[in-house]
Write a structure and sequence with these properties.
Length: 414
């Protein structure tokens, strides 16, 4: 198998691992980032979900550590990758294991929601790379199990999601403990002011790479919207999955309670489904994700934060059961399909109270999403909703008459 020119910049053990995985086409961010990172330059990368960011920073990181050729020291890793969610941390850990299988580079993944004993044991034994979420990392630092004074490479991934989850103060506490002399990489899908300020503080004379800023949706994704009354969404979802033989469907809800409710409805209809959100234990989340990857679970129902680390090939459909309040979130969601050169479908359910959300999404992506009127639950009321009827419900539900309801204040951080 021919190795692409950009991957020929990497050492032979990494090339061999890439070849065994069948990777033949580097993504744009890999093409642009890898040469600069191999030269030791700081990098500011802005790219959407599903663009290959993980390999873009993991491959050069492994090469730099391999050439450094220093032994792992207990409690003092050489590289730190900070990421917002447990699932994304696990995904990055898998990438390090796969790409570094022929290297003498050790790593561990640390996050909350599970006991810390195994994580502390690995750190004390000594690892080159730590992949971590902010909360557990700070816990182990405060307990003096982990020290950052020997960090030579630092990667901050999904910085905008760190902002959304309230992690920026924790991230700044971590950065304050890093050595002044280090190689720093910063990745974010969007660049709101708070994130841009963090990048300025973290990076030194960085190379800046932006991938497709004017075309945020994946061209291979076939999008459509289905107007439906709120009470008919469950029936429409069940009808879609069964009548169209959807094999691997990722369904997004706005709330954890909503995700659990949808799973119960699907299960009652005889469809294998599982929920993944912040209230689930780590073992439950891992089991659900494994079942989804292997095809045992047909529909995975997720909230946005829990889904950020889902990287599953072969997702045929993404269904926005609830439209997101922020239009950028829609882009992150649908980016979970059409990976690795495949095509995919994204379906949005839109009730009357979500009409404004749909308008915001179409304004951002600069196109109208085609409407599917062919389904039995089509609602002209939802399609034509304007004014108060189109505004999102107050938090906590309707809770009174229509005249008493006020639209929620939507965040515009991005």
């Amino acid at each position: 198998m021919s190795i692409p020119a950009i991957f020929r910049l990497l050492i032979e053990p990494i090339q061999r691992a890439i070849a065994e995985e069948g990777y033949t086409t580097p993504t744009p961010i890999q093409i642009e980032a890898i040469p600069h990172l191999l030269q030791g330059k700081d990098l500011l990368g802005c790219a959407q979900t599903g663009t290959g960011k993980t390999a873009a920073f993991t491959l050069p990181l492994l090469q730099e550590l391999s050439r450094e050729n220093k032994p792992a020291t207990g409690g003092r890793p050489r590289a730190l990758i900070l990421t917002p969610t447990r699932e994304l941390a696990a995904q990055i850990g898998d990438s390090i294991r796969v790409y570094g299988r022929y290297l003498n580079i050790s790593h561990t993944v640390i996050f909350g929601g599970v006991g810390q004993h195994a994580q502390v044991t690995a750190i004390r034994r000594g690892v080159h790379v730590v992949v971590a979420t902010p909360g557990r990392l700070l816990d182990l630092m405060e307990q003096r199990h982990l020290h950052l004074d020997k960090i030579a490479l630092f990667v901050l991934d999904e910085a905008d999601r760190m902002l959304d989850m309230g992690f920026i103060p924790a991230v700044r506490r971590v950065i304050a403990k890093l050595p002044a002399k280090r190689h720093s990489l910063f990745f974010s899908a969007t660049m709101p002011p708070a994130v841009a300020g963090l990048a300025r503080d973290l990076l030194h004379d960085p190379v800046q790479i932006t991938i497709d800023p004017e075309r945020p949706t994946v061209e291979r994704i076939a999008q459509k919207v289905m107007f439906v009354d709120k009470q008919d969404k469950d029936a429409l979802l069940i009808d879609m999955i069964t009548s169209h033989n959807m094999d691997r469907v990722l369904v997004f809800t706005r709330t954890k309670h909503g995700a659990d409710k949808v799973v119960k409805k699907l299960a009652a209809a005889g469809l294998s489904a599982s929920a993944i959100h912040g209230n689930k234990s780590q073992s439950n989340r891992t089991s659900s994700l494994h079942g989804f990857k292997t095809g045992k679970i047909r529909a995975l129902v997720a909230t946005d934060i829990a889904a950020r680390g889902i990287d599953v090939d072969g997702i045929t459909h993404v269904v926005n059961y609830d439209l997101p309040e922020e239009p950028e979130t829609y882009v992150h969601r649908i980016g979970r399909t059409a990976r690795a050169g495949a095509e995919g479908d994204a379906v949005a359910f839109c009730a009357a109270r979500e009409r404004d959300f749909l308008r915001d999404i179409e304004r951002m992506i600069r196109k109208s999403i085609p409407v599917d009127r062919s389904h039995r639950y089509h609602s002209e009321t939802a399609r034509l909703a304007t004014g108060p009827d189109a505004r999102p419900e107050p938090k906590g539900g309707r809770g009174g008459s229509k005249t008493a309801a006020r639209p929620t204040q939507r965040k515009r951080a991005r």
